[in-house]
Amino acid sequence: MKRHLLAAFVVWHALAMLASALPSPGAGLNRSYWSDPTVQAEFGSWAELLGMESSVLQDDIFALAVRVQAGVEQVRAPFAAWLAVTNTEQSWKMFVAPHRFPTRLQLRVASATSEWAVVYAEDSADALWMASRFRNERMRASVFAWGWPAARTRWTSACKGMAAELLAQRADVVRVQCRFAKMTSPSAAQVRANEEPAERWVLTQEVGRRGEDP
Q1: Residues 174, 117: contact at Cβ < 8 Å?
Q2: What is the value of pTM for the model shown?
Q3: What percentage of the chain's residues is helix, strand, coil (to nearest 5)?
Q4: Longest dimension (CA), the chain
Q5: pLDDT tens digit string along 95-110?
Q6: How many CB atoms within 10 Å of residue 77?
Q7: CA pair distance 33, 149, nearest whole angstrom
Q8: How many helices (H) and strands (E) does the chain have?
């Protein structure tokens, strides 16, 4: 009897893992993510290949994605409680597409008598404020997520938190600026020539010490 119960449990758990692993649009149904240049470039490539307008293709894909998500949720429903209790849900997607327009985090501070000075920048050998924290694997995942338009609320909270730390640590600082440099991934020719692609600043936020105008 015990063996039969154990076998039933193993089968149940295997089916739960299979249901959890089913690919689904998930957060991709939030179309604010689609405004990112990486996503738009993917749609553009497929629209050209299929001979369609990109906007039409996006509407068709969204309609299909809604139906797929509903079907996946129905399959997962019997296992939802078990997945939650065992914390074995797959909460993020793997290998969606290469990020062709990556972002790099930068933090700057200013005092009452000085201009902006960079205190942290990704891949910098000099601006290293809390660098060990930002290099942590889990923190790197958060920084990556903050660079997406749909994560604006989390990004705002993160910037306020980092600014509070900097303001507490440095009495001379009156303003903190958080921003991302966004660029196109370098081409093979640029890599060989050691050229950095042009970048632009996005998602800029400023936090001032109380009584100071940001």
Answers
A1: no
A2: 0.70
A3: 55, 15, 30
A4: 79
A5: 666 778 888 999 999 9
A6: 10
A7: 6
A8: 8, 4
